[in-house]
C-alpha cells in the first residue's frame, strides 16, 4: 500500500459519506471511522506511513500521546521540562536508566533480541538542555521516556576520591547539552585569575565543538592595575577567543555581555566565587539567584548555585548557570590534545614524527619550535602539557 493512501481514502470517504454525527477513533496501528449510516458500520484503514506524517496523532507510548520538550532545570531525579512556554515537573522512566545489550555477531544470523540489560552507573542520563519526549502521568506530572539526539555537549571528568577506593574510577559528567556558546567566567581579583583553569574550559569547549567567549568579572577591583590583565586577554583575543570585561558593581561591560547573549543558549562556567550569579542578576534583574559573598578569610569561593538551571532571557535566548567548581578535568578524548588549543591546531602533523609526535621532548617538533619562537604563549603550552599528562594518568588508572 503506497504511503499516504489512507489519507486519500479518508478524504474521499469523508467528502462523500461522512455525516455530522460521525467521529474518529485512533489506535497506534489502525484508524477507525464510525458512521451514523446504516448499522453503525466501521471503516478500517491501515495507516501505513501515517506515523511519520502525523507524529502528533500516532506517536504513542503505553497508550498515551508523547510530548516533546527541553529540560530547563534538574535536581536529583527531578526535572523541569518546557514545552511551548509551559513548564512541567517530570521524572525519569526506568527504561532510560538501562542500557540494552544486543548480540555482537552477524545480525543476519541472530534474532534482534536483547541479551541483557545493564543499569547505567554514576551519571544522570539527562542533562539541562536535552530535548526529551515524555508522557503525562496520572498525577499530572510528566514521565520522560526518550532522550532525543544531542547537537553538542559540554562535559568534564568526575572527581575520584583519594586514595582510590576499590573499583572507583572517573566517569564522564555531562554539564549541559545543545548550547550555542560557552561563557568562561574568570574574576579579575578575589579570587585571583587562574589562567590554566580558563585553558581547561576552552579546551573542553573545543572538544565539544562549541564556540567560547571569555568573560572577566569584578573589573572594578583592578581599575588602577589593569596592565597584566589586558595583556593576558589580548593573548586570547589573538588566537580567536572574543572577550568582554565586566563589573556587576559599576555595570561596566554589562551591555556588551548582554548583546553577546541575546538570541543564544549560553552556559556559564567558572570557579566558585567569580561572581557568576551576581553577573546574571546584573544582566537581567529578577532572576532570583542566591548570591553569597566570597569568604575573605580563606579566599575561596562558596558554591552559590545549588541547582543546574536554564533561565530564559528577555529578548530571546537563555542562560545555564553551572555550580562553581575548584577543579575542571577533561574527559577522555580520542584526538591529539593539541587540537584542543587553537594556536596549535595548524601545526599538528607538521612535526618530524608527524602525528606520532607528543610535542614534548621529540626533536623536530613544530609546536615546540613555535613556543621558542614566541608564536605560542609558553604558559598556554604548559597548560597543554599538564592536561596531556593528566589524561595519561587517568588512562593508566582505568
Write up what this structure looks like:
Residues 1-58, 100-107 and 290-306 have low confidence and may be disordered. Helices cover 22% and strands 26% of the residues. With 398 residues, it is α+β, with helices and mostly antiparallel strands.
Q: Summed up, what is this model?
A:
This protein has helices at 5-16, 50-53, 55-58, 195-208, 227-238, 254-261, 276-283, 366-372, 378-397, and strands spanning 23-26, 30-34, 42-46, 60-61, 64-65, 67-75, 78-83, 86-92, 98-101, 116-119, 131-136, 142-147, 153-157, 172-177, 181-187, 212-217, 243-245, 265-270, 308-312, 318-321. The chain has 398 residues and is an alpha+beta fold. 30% of the residues are buried.
Secondary-structure content class: alpha+beta
Oligomeric state as shown: single chain
Percentage of β-strand residues: 25-35%
Low-pLDDT sequence parts = 1-58, 100-107, 290-306
* Average pLDDT: 75
Rg over CA atoms, rounded to whole Å, is: 27 Å
Amino acid at each position: 500500500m503506497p504511503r499516504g493512501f489512507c489519507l486519500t481514502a479518508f478524504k474521499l470517504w469523508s467528502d462523500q459519506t461522512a455525516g455530522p454525527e460521525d467521529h474518529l477513533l485512533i489506535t497506534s496501528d489502525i484508524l477507525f471511522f464510525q458512521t451514523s449510516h446504516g448499522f453503525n458500520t466501521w471503516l478500517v484503514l491501515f495507516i501505513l506511513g501515517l506515523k511519520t506524517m502525523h507524529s502528533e496523532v500516532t506517536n504513542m507510548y503505553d497508550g498515551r500521546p508523547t510530548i516533546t520538550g527541553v529540560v530547563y532545570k534538574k535536581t536529583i531525579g527531578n526535572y523541569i521540562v518546557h514545552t511551548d512556554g509551559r513548564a512541567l515537573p517530570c521524572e525519569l522512566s526506568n527504561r532510560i536508566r538501562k542500557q540494552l545489550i544486543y548480540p555482537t555477531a552477524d545480525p543476519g544470523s541472530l534474532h534482534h533480541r536483547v541479551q541483557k540489560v545493564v543499569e547505567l552507573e554514576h551519571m544522570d542520563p539527562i542533562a539541562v538542555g536535552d530535548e526529551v519526549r515524555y508522557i503525562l502521568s496520572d498525577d499530572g506530572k510528566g514521565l520522560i521516556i526518550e532522550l532525543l539526539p544531542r547537537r553538542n555537549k559540554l562535559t568534564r571528568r568526575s572527581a575520584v576520591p583519594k586514595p582510590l577506593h576499590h573499583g572507583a574510577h572517573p566517569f564522564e559528567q555531562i554539564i549541559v547539552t545543545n548550547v550555542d556558546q560557552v561563557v568562561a567566567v574568570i574574576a579579575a581579583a578575589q579570587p585571583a585569575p587562574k589562567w590554566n583553569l580558563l585553558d581547561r574550559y576552552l579546551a573542553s569547549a573545543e572538544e565539544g565543538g562549541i564556540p567560547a567567549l571569555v568573560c572577566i568579572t569584578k573589573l572594578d577591583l583592578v581599575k588602577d592595575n589593569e596592565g597584566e590583565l589586558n595583556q593576558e586577554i589580548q593573548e586570547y583575543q589573538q588566537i580567536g577567543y572574543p572577550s568582554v570585561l565586566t563589573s556587576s558593581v559599576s555595570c561596566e561591560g554589562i551591555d556588551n555581555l548582554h548583546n553577546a547573549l541575546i538570541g543564544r543558549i549560553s552556559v556559564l562556567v567558572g570557579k566558585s566565587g567569580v561572581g557568576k550569579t551576581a553577573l546574571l542578576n546584573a544582566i537581567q534583574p529578577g532572576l532570583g539567584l542566591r548570591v553569597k559573598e566570597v569568604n575573605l578569610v580563606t579566599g575561596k569561593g562558596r558554591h552559590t548555585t545549588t541547582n543546574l538551571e536554564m533561565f530564559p532571557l528577555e529578548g530571546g535566548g537563555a542562560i545555564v548557570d553551572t555550580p562553581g567548581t575548584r577543579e575542571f578535568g577533561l574527559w577522555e578524548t580520542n584526538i591529539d590534545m593539541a587540537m584542543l588549543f587553537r594556536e596549535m591546531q595548524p601545526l599538528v602533523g607538521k612535526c618530524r614524527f608527524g602525528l606520532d609526535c607528543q610535542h614534548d621532548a621529540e626533536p623536530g617538533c613544530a609546536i615546540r619550535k613555535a613556543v621558542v619562537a614566541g608564536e605560542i604563549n609558553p604558559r598556554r603550552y604548559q597548560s597543554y602539557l599538564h592536561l596531556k599528562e593528566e589524561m595519561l594518568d587517568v588512562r593508566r588508572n582505568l
